[in-house]
Amino acid sequence: MSESSEKDIKNQVIERTIFFLVPVVLLIIWQILGNAGIINATIMPTPSSIFKTFLDLLKSGDLAEDLGASMGRVLIGFFFGTLAGLLFGIVTGLYPKINKAVAAIFGILRPIPMIGLVPLMILWFGIGEKSKIIVIAVGTFWSVLINTQEGIFNVNDKLIEVAQLLGKNKITVLTKIIFPAAIPSIFTGIRLGVGNAWKSVVAAEMLAATKGVGHMIEYARELAQPEKLFVGLLSIGIIGLVIDAIIMTIQKKLFVWE
Amino acid sequence: MEEKENLKINHVKKIFKINETQLEVLTDINLDIKAGEFISIVGASGCGKSTLARMIAGLEKPTAGDITIGEKKIEKPSVNVGMVFQESRLFPWLTVEKNVEFGIHENLTSKEKKELVQKHIELVGLKSFEKALPKQLSGGMQQRVSIARALINNPSVLILDEPFGALDALTRINMQNEVLKIWEQERTTMILITHDIDEAIFLSDRILIMGKNPGEIKKEIKVGMSRPRSRNSYGFTDIRKEIYQEFFENTDMDIEYYL
Questions:
Q1: pTM over 0.80
Q2: A165 vs B contacts (CB less than 8 Å)
Q3: CB B240 within 8 A of CB B223
Q4: Which residue in B has a C-alpha nearest to residue A169's C-alpha?
Q5: Separation in Å, CA of B146 to nearest CA in chain A
Q6: Which residue segment(s) compose the domain that A237 sits in?
Q7: Distance from CA of A165 to the nearest CA of B (A)
Q8: Is residue A4 domain-shared with residue A103, that is, in the same domain?
């Protein structure tokens, strides 16, 4: 027993080391190749110069301003997208006929990538905030919708039978069985929704914006500032990761029975 | 609900429609069960015993005939008939006490609720597991919670539909003792659906043997022995033999003689 747990600990240490070591080694190689002039610095700047730019942008407040603008949009878009996804997900999940009625429409609209919607939204709502927020909301909407539906569809009928046997009414079945059973899936939808919202904001900002990370990336390319471009991309990645990790932690705490 | 009432099954027939063909699952079932009686229904799979159980619970309607408890015809599920299934069917997100509390039908104050829940948790021997989640319990313990939940409204009839089928042999015997204890305490009419013949003999006042195609009651055996019953007594093995003969009419039960 103690021997196997010792082995487990050893394995864990090795895994963690690999987890951190591999990216670090790659960064070092990248840096060395850059310094040696083997990698063209005008399209692939070295990690150290990217980091320096990052510090500069942090100091000047430019980065915070762009990230702040993007996050604000994501928050609003995510909020409305989640609301709509929950609403449609619950209604279509509970009423098969309504689900059938909208299945074809949803089926056609869903595969359209968010970036494909940007021109249409600009045409309809102009290049202001509205079009960007709607693109983000749509990005959030689908994953919340699909996972809410799934959560409701997959409620175990046997549990509902138990409620019938105990003389419970429909409202009790809905609030005490269907919702609690569906909530973990709904939460997964929300987690994926935030991820999609964060991805959509970049798409929306690249086409038409004067602020935001998407704009920062696009503008950096125009001005041939590859460092800045990298800072933008990496910020998106890191923030996305952090958001996902936070929601995963909440999910684990909330749904201990899973 | 204070007075337990007799259960009557009158000419019950059940036909399932599968595609266009009609399948007669049960044909003309008649049965009188006295209040407080312990009945077992034994039969091979597919004989319609679970369908009969579901009709008594009101989860399904007979194609013809009716089932009554006291004066009342069973049309839909009611708190007067409880049911326990092979799976415990607990709500995984609720603790043991919340699962049991879910069963309560009457409007009670939270203090009354608490007492009632506590009483039933103790009845099934799960004291100190009130705050546990179902996934933290063994299969037998989960089934105890399920029984507590089904009994909380003090039903006239409790249907046990192969409740211990998924448990290991030792736990099963434990649970049989437990059910006996509960029955002696509560005097609820028990209807046990099982294909464990020993289980039926150990627990029941009467055993009904069902045949299939179509499902019907082939034989009724009264178990007159006093409880608790020894599984190896002569009376016990005699009844066991009688039931085996019913199931395997064409096989020679005295095969030992030829060896």
A1: yes
A2: 57-59, 77, 81-83, 150
A3: no
A4: B105
A5: 10
A6: 46-254
A7: 5
A8: no
